[in-house]
């Protein structure tokens, strides 16, 4: 009976660890993307998401709209960075 309760407790702890890392990663990606946009005047943040690169590391992907300059039209760029 105690072994069953112990297994349940361990499973509960592991599940709670899994669910608590997601929001922290999302906040880190969002904050870093906003800092990138703030460094460029007139830029606009379109989307932010987290992805996994070829090495299995988690990276953030931000789509940023850069304003028109020197006769060139506005363009959308994608930036990858670590959270």
Question: What this model shows, in words?
Answer:
- The chain is α+β, with helices and mostly antiparallel strands and 83 residues long.
- The chain has one helix spanning 2-38, and strands at residues 44-52, 58-66, 75-81.
- A three-stranded antiparallel sheet has the order 1-2-3, covered by helices on one side.
- The radius of gyration is 20 Å and the shape is rod-shaped.
- The model has no long low-confidence stretch (mean pLDDT 85).
Question: How are the strands ordered across the major sheet?
Answer: 1-2-3
**Number of H/I helices:** 1
Portion of residues in beta strands equals 25-35%
Oligomeric form: single chain
Largest sheet: 3 strands, antiparallel
Would you count the extended β strands for me? 3
Unreliable residue stretches: none
Shape: rod-shaped
Order of helices and strands: HEEE
Task: Please give a handful of descriptors for the protein shown.
single chain, 83 residues, alpha+beta, 3-stranded antiparallel beta sheet, 1 helix, 3 strands
What's the structural blueprint in terms of helices and strands?
Elements: H1 2-38, E1 44-52, E2 58-66, E3 75-81
Antiparallel strand pairs: 1-2, 2-3
Outline of this structure?
This protein is an alpha+beta fold. The protein has one helix spanning 2-38; strands spanning 44-52, 58-66, 75-81. The protein contains one helix and three strands; from the N terminus they run αβββ.
């Amino acid at each position: 009976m105690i072994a069953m309760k112990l297994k349940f407790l361990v499973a509960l702890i592991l599940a709670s660890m899994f669910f608590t890392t997601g929001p922290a990663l999302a906040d880190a990606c969002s904050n870093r993307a906003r800092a990138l946009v703030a460094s460029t005047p007139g830029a606009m943040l379109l989307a932010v998401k987290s992805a996994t690169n070829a090495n299995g590391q988690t990276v953030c992907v931000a789509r940023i709209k850069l304003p028109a300059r020197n006769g060139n039209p506005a363009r959308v760029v994608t930036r990858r960075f670590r959270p």
